[in-house]
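Quick one, tokens below:
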């Protein structure tokens, strides 16, 4: 398997150190364990809580995200990257105050959600992807986030909603439809069962503005079975599009049907 060509724009000492550790680990020839990589990253952590720790955590997650964006969505190193994050949560934890709350480092993966939101790749303001590289990074990052949602320490699902909304609850520009569908399919493939279970358990939960619906979906603005069913309907319709877009949509719907049948 070919070497992954990775680049890092941030030049801080922390970012460079974490990038060097991860960059070697995700290469197909690496035999290092995720646990060993987690310990190497932990050794870089500042000894005292405070601004230095927050900066370290933020820069560390930025590097994870930057690397994930550059790993093809169907590459085994996407899973390996998630395994490192899971291994971090298994390390002995220290409780610290971050943004006014008591947080366990590493068990709670502090600031990962905030960093992911800051770095999230969606459509550009003119509702299009600037270049093919942007489209690929978008799908890769969605694949990484979808895999993360299966971890016990991860509970945020807003990224899934945003991607599925863009792909299925509105009409994307025809030229970008493939990118939207590919990104949505990653969520169904890697965390579809998690999303279904959350939807099934939502019950009387209130609607949330952050989960607002797209123009085509008229149901509640939350993760619920009605929304799940709507996504299936849209995938069924898009599956009629000739070529790879149709195939990807059909496969995503098949996975959703299978999840439905298992309950």
């Amino acid at each position: 398997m070919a070497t992954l060509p990775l680049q890092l724009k941030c030049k801080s000492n922390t970012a460079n150190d974490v990038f060097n550790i991860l960059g070697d680990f995700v290469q197909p020839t690496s035999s290092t364990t995720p646990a060993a990589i987690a310990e190497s990253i932990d050794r870089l952590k500042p000894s005292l809580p405070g601004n230095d720790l927050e900066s370290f955590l933020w820069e560390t997650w930025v590097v994870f995200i930057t690397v994930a964006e550059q790993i093809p969505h169907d590459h085994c190193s996407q899973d390996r990257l998630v395994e490192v994050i899971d291994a971090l949560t298994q390390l002995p934890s220290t409780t610290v105050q971050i943004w006014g709350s008591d947080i366990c480092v590493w068990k709670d993966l502090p600031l990962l959600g905030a960093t992911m939101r800051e770095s999230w790749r969606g459509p550009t303001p003119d509702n299009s992807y600037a270049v093919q590289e942007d489209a690929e990074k978008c799908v890769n990052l969605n694949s990484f986030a979808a895999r993360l949602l299966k971890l016990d320490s991860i509970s945020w699902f807003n990224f899934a909603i945003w991607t599925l909304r863009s792909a299925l609850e509105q009409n994307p520009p025809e030229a970008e439809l493939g990118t939207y569908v590919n990104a949505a399919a990653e969520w169904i493939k890697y965390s579809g069962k998690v999303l279904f279970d959350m939807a099934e358990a939502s019950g009387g939960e209130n609607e949330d503005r952050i989960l607002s619906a797209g123009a085509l979906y008229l149901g509640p603005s939350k993760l619920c079975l009605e929304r799940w069913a709507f996504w299936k309907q849209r995938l069924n319709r898009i599956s009629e599009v000739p070529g790879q877009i149709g195939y990807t949509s059909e496969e995503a719907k098949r996975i959703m049907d299978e999840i439905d049948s298992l309950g």
